[in-house]
Task: structure prediction
Amino acid sequence: MAALAPGSTIGILGGGQLGRMLALAAARLGLKSHIFCPEGDNPGSHVCDCITLAEYDDAAALDRFAAGIQVATYEFENVPVACVERIAKKIALRPGIDALRISQDRLSEKTFLSGLGIATAPFAPVDDADALNQAAARTGLPAILKTRRFGYDGRGQALLRTQADIAGAWQKIGALPAVLEGFVAFECEISVIAARGADGAIACYDPPENQHTEGILSISRVPARISGTTADAAREMTRRILTALDYAGVIGVEFFVLKDGALMVNEFAPRVHNSGHWTLDACATSQFEQHIRAICGWPLGDPARHSDAEMRNLIGADAGQWSALAADPGLCLHLYGKDAPRPGRKMGHVTRLFSRSANSDAAS
Result:
């Protein structure tokens, strides 16, 4: 593909904080952004050049949107497939439909990964309450029952510790098609944020170590406390996923690190990722700029970090500390412009940078 020149317009499906940061990155490169999203609290709308407020099944609005852009992308993985299929018939869509379709269904995702020879937690499909007992026999207990679709930040999940937990688990997740995942005794969780360009070039950021609270990412630290061999293995698995999907754009791949250093993929997100927000302040090319470069046919930027970093999400009422956070000279503060804080809602994040040391270079 020919690289899109400055002044071109990128269409972004979704108006959340990721869309906001993509639009800001596009503007830095002299590119315009047009956001498509339903009415509501859409922080991306504050910083884009144009916005279409419509439902994702509004065919006429989608056609008008596609007519005014040169490439389309999405900022979250639950955009309806029918929506992106319509867009893709009219304009380039990056990443492609396959990545979106596979990532929207946990069973499809794990089957895809297994087909690449990439280890995952043991899993079994659960289509009704009766199938749950059979699935538990396959995966063993403890296990986690997860809805196949539309689950994020710990939503749509039920933990099964013993046989006694099975009875109510199906109703707890809303009696929806699900997958049961065997529990993995891991040492830590890491992720790889990587980009693949339209020419097939791949650039990987250093893996952060991630800490979750109640199913929501709370802290990402770079470098992760893993060996160089483990980091290289995680990057290589990510490259295989990108290549198999013929991907263009940024992807986030989450891993469990086992005691012996072996890796299991938990899931992947076909978009910029929360655990990569530290790149805004610790890298010359952030994950958001990298995504814009990749989908527009530009050369990928350098993913090397110039600093160690710790990123912390501001969740719910945390954002109310903005004045004190802004007064801390060691923090980089990012607020998303959302209306009202709610428990579990990501309102912003802060990143603290540290000088790179010899130890941190070895770890990464």
Q: What stands out?
A: The chain has a mean pLDDT of 95. The radius of gyration is 20 Å. The chain is about 30% helix and 25% strand.
